[in-house]
């Protein structure tokens, strides 16, 4: 990414947009390229815009920022803004970069943009993950991982299945951060709650993936492909 962070704003309140644009203009190397006050118009245009991050208000009539984020989270980095704290867990599960409470302060917005810079300068992935798990600080070799899903107990945690069937829980780790640790050519996000190792894919169709991961009985795990991830999955197999 260039040194200048290009951002797009979506908020249904024009005063909020003006205030946020004013704050962004005061931050070095940040440029607002466009602002929207209607989610549908935003969704129609955002994929064609050259931007690094989308700043989304959560509470909007007709369509919430959470719903908008589900549709673009595979292609754009996201910062949420909201006056309420109860959306924090949902925001984390959508792999957003940051969650900024209103009224927004310049110093807090600067922190959010610093996170964008950090993500963009992440070093090359290694052949292992070192992270806190249910069995303590653990090193997991990526070539042993076949399947990852969001934990049903706590959405901040991620359940990993290894080639030998063993299961490990990564504690408090978003999919966005996890994908940055994994070799991009070897893993693919299938929907907002599941990642599969490319080597574990047996059949790939328009809406479904059949894997080599054993399920109940003599069946194999089947994964539904989310609309947001279908294009990136196709590109993976075109390489």
TrEMBL record:
Response regulatory domain residues: 6-117
Keyword field contains RNA-binding: no
Keywords linked to the UniProt accession: DNA-binding, Phosphoprotein
SUPFAM superfamilies found in the cross-reference section: CheY-like
Entry keyword annotation includes DNA-binding: yes
Residue(s) carrying 4-aspartylphosphate: 57
Pfam assignment, any one: Response_reg
Record-linked PANTHER family: REGULATOR OF RPOS (PTHR48111), TRANSCRIPTIONAL REGULATORY PROTEIN YPDB (PTHR48111:SF17)
Name of the featured protein: Response regulator transcription factor
Organism whose genome encodes this protein: Chryseobacterium gilvum
